[in-house]
Design brief:
Elements lengths: L1 E3 L5 H5 L8 E2 L5 E5 L2 E8 L2 E5 L6 H7 L6 H8 L3 H9 L10 H10 L5 H15 L2 E2 L2 E2 L4 H5 L3 H4 L7 H13 L5 H6 L2 H8 L7 H12 L9 H10 L12 H14 L5
Antiparallel strand pairs: 1-5, 2-3, 3-4, 4-5, 6-7
Helix pairs in contact: 4-14, 5-9, 5-12, 11-12, 13-14
């Protein structure tokens, strides 16, 4: 399947820290999972090719990469600020993906006090341990599968203190205590508060889950790089016009602050 997509960089989008199961192949292509299907993606400018051994349609690509979201309009709004405009110029191809909620929740629980290499490894081992084998790939575990495990069962994934949080998250989701629909549509503070009833989930993890797993673009995850950038660039906070899209702005600011050298 070949598509023309403006303003999308697979490299920036897939490796900006919002997802952890994509790999970049030696030939420059990307390999990951979309809608439980193995997918190889190739980019040549604005021309993209997506292939899979299973039937894959354009709607699935549109959904995963949120191609129905009007980034042109959002960028026009954010460019009213000169610093945001510079960050957008630097990282224009980043898009916030539509990822499966439970996978996003567990991934960001695993991300606590961790680096990308270890996060990726833990997630791979978790999928091998209790993810369904389908079409020669391991799917991300379901809440039902993960909630049935003990701390001893999870020892092989080497997640350390995070194991008990993964079990609690899966039990909460399996028992209906955590509702994806509520998180998507409730007032942001109520959604954040509900997520933080899960053991080990603080404000940063909650906001990551809301932004990357629930399409809450008004959520603004803060880590060391974002705190540093905000202190230097926006000590009084982002301008009000950006508030509906601060999560998208966060992605531009994060990449700009971390890799552009502005803090050297």
């Amino acid at each position: 399947m070949s598509l023309s997509i403006p303003d999308l960089s697979l490299d920036l989008t897939l490796f900006c820290g919002q997802c952890f199961r994509w790999k970049k192949l030696e030939n420059g292509d990307f390999y990951g999972i979309i809608n439980d299907k193995p997918v190889t993606a190739h980019q040549d400018g604005e021309r993209f090719t997506f292939s899979s051994p299973k039937p894959l349609n354009e709607a699935e690509i549109q959904h995963y990469f949120a191609l129905d979201v009007d980034y042109k309009r959002i960028k026009q709004i954010l460019r009213s600020d000169s610093v945001l405009s510079s960050a957008i110029d630097y990282a224009s191809g980043i898009r916030v993906l539509r990822q499966p909620f439970f996978e996003t929740l567990c991934s960001f629980i695993i991300s606590q006090n961790n680096n990308i290499t270890r996060i990726t490894g833990i997630i791979e081992r978790l999928c091998e341990l209790c993810g369904e084998l389908k079409d020669e790939i391991r799917l991300f575990p379901t809440p039902q599968a993960l909630s049935a495990l003990t701390l001893e069962d999870l020892a092989p994934i080497r997640s350390g203190f995070r194991a008990k949080y993964l079990i609690d998250a899966s039990v909460c989701c399996q028992n209906g205590l955590i509702s994806e629909d509520f998180l998507k549509y409730a007032p942001l503070e109520d959604a954040r508060r509900l997520l933080m009833t899960i053991k080990g989930v603080g404000p940063k993890v909650a906001d990551c889950v809301l932004l990357f797993g629930c399409e809450r673009y008004e959520a603004f995850p803060r880590d060391v790089w974002i705190n540093r950038a905000m202190a230097a660039l926006y000590p009084n906070g982002l301008p009000d016009f950006a508030l509906p899209y601060v999560g998208i702005a966060q992605q531009y600011i994060f990449h700009y602050a971390r890799t552009s050298g502005i803090f050297k």
